[in-house]
# Entry
Amino acid sequence: MLPVYSIMNRESKDRNTETSYPSMGGVTDQCADLEEVEGVLTRLFPERQIAKVLLINPPDSHAELFHYDTARRGRYTNYPPYGLIILARNLREIGVEVNICNLNHEVLKQCHATDTVDSFDYDVAWEKALDAAVAEITPDLICVTCMFTMTHLSFKRVCEKASSHGVSLAIGGVHVSNDVERVLDDISCARMAFLHEGELALKGFVQVVNGEAGVDTLAQIIIDEGGKRLRFQKEKRPTEDDCNLLPSWDLAGPEENARYGTIGSFYYLKPGDTRFATILSNRGCRAQCTFCSVRSFNGAGVRMRDVSSVVDELERLENDYGVSHVMWLDDDLLKNESRAVALFNEMVRRGLKLTWDATNGVIAISCTEEVVAACAGSGCIGMNIGMESGNPEILKQVRKPGKVANFLKAAEALCKHEQIYASIQLMVGFPGETMGMVMDTIEVAREMDLDWCRISPLQPLANTPIYESMVAQGLIDDVGSSEVRFAAGAFGKQAEIEQGLRLATADFEEAFSVIGLDQVPDADQITDIWFYMNYHLNFHRLFHEDRPAKVDQQIATLINLSDVVAPENAFALYFLGFLGQQRDGTIPPSVIERLSTRLETSEYWQSRFAAFGLSADDLRHNDFKNKHLPRLLPKGYSNTWAA
Ligand code: B12
Ligand code: SF4
# Structure
């Protein structure tokens, strides 16, 4: 690691100390001379002029993890680069010409334009798009963003290619902010790293280079001088007013994103040709869950845009771009319940027709009857409740906002609005989490009886309290970014498990029932527990679903699962058959055929079907014996959460 020289140019810390970024104050090495900084900037920009900037979003993952067929099924995510359109709008405010090159989109688009895997080369696809973008704008500065630690390798390759054009390179984003020293060590071509929310810092930086402001105004940036790093401690954290500036949607082309990939978790509830976009109304979160980096990235508290600014943006998306569904990017959309209700009511008052979802999850304590009714009334079709655990001790330990009673109450409110497909976010594998505690999670989720549970294994990531405490306890290694892989999502190990492509233990039933209630399961056992939870909470409950609106939603969910997300998943096919029989009185023969083939060719699915008492004959004979089978509960378990 290089020596770090702090520039202590913090006016008077921040406008509000309480809300400043936690990591900005930490460096106490010696101070660098501001005149020296002028020299550094002149070496980086000999003309002292930044008139044109190219902003780049790297592909979500790298070539080795990319599957052509998965992309062709439309399974990978394809989000508009919302952070970049905010940066663009702020740069335009000072007359800078900006372009955006969304390489994730370019790769997916080009993949869809080919007919065979042999005619598609992942690296060539993004490299060509990047070269073309540089040639088109001939930038004075290239900025590359990176949100996910798991994107690191792709990000690094993009930075190296971009810098080969001989233009100064700046990086930023959540991943960069979370692990900046290591990121700079690994990506030596990046000369400037911006930290935290960067729109004002970047705008200010351009003004300094262009001689319109003094170097003492530089903020939230580390300049890598080769032999040492200059870290500017000043903060330019966007205020609520700053957040009202509408982003440059004209540079993102939201007309195209959903054609080549997914946005949010509820996309399949909309017709295939729907135009999707994302929108951010609040920054930050009131909570401080130990596994989450939102507070270290956004600082404490929640900054809220004016309702009118948010609805103006929605109106533009609907009228100018034909968008008919949006996903909120917010971490805490319902913070300040009366403001949330005012926002949803204003959408209705202005006659917006678009629908929306809260894929990121909302905080259960804010899901009151009034709030949920306003959500439903303004076009909400999908909502995730962030719960993570049903065990009071774990909830306390991970500082999750809300108690079991809050989750049950939120579920009650959501159940009254059938148009909202409501799901619960759960996690397993917290340090010290015993089998009995996991059972509490399963039982609370069962009691809530919402439409789906999204279960993921804990993945401790840098700059979160849980990561630091697990490293300190020797439970995990403090690995470099390039070692971190997706655990969930389309690139993750879980995608393989979902499809039955990865086997944890051969004898599933036995493996599950031998885990003692006081035992902390190991990694393989967590995989089996995940599988059990997934079956019981998501699939088995479908035997008892008879509300027509819900049956339609679940059939759409299962079609998406079996066609797009996990075509190998035999449960999805089985229950698609079951619900088809309930709703239409018949099962499409292709569903039975696919299921039979899956079971004949997969030992994995044979053993899982045997453990849960299912068979393809159930569909053939319309005889669903398993419907009444008892649950596979570990011996001696009784609820602790209800006490
Ligand atoms: C929306 C969201 C998603 C969306 C996708 C978003 C997308 N691709 O655009 C979905 C739902 C798919 C998602 C999924 C996941 N997510 Co997520 N997600 C978020 C969330 C809530 C908001 C991100 C956002 O859009 N922010 C708003 C925009 C405006 O901010 P921004 O892009 O960061 O840009 C600003 C700054 O970063 C900066 N900036 C950015 N780039 C640059 C470049 C330069 C040069 C400069 C100057 C400035 C700058 O300025 C911008 C304006 O202020 C964040 C939380 C958060 N607050 O960041 C988590 C977050 C990013 N997600 C996280 C995680 C862990 C995940 C998952 C891995 C979860 C899982 N287990 O599956 C998956 C992985 C997805 C995948 N690729 O497979 C973590 C990432 C931690 C990490 N180090 O990797 C976060 C931080 C939440 C957390 N729990 O800590 N996520
Ligand atoms: S409620 Fe969600 S966004 Fe807020 S700290 Fe917890 S996990 Fe992060």
User: Anything to note?
Assistant: Residues 10-19, 25-30, 501-506 have pLDDT under 50 and may be disordered. Residues 263-458 form a domain with the pyruvate-formate lyase- activating enzyme fold (CATH 3.80.30.20). The two ends are 52 Å apart (CA to CA).
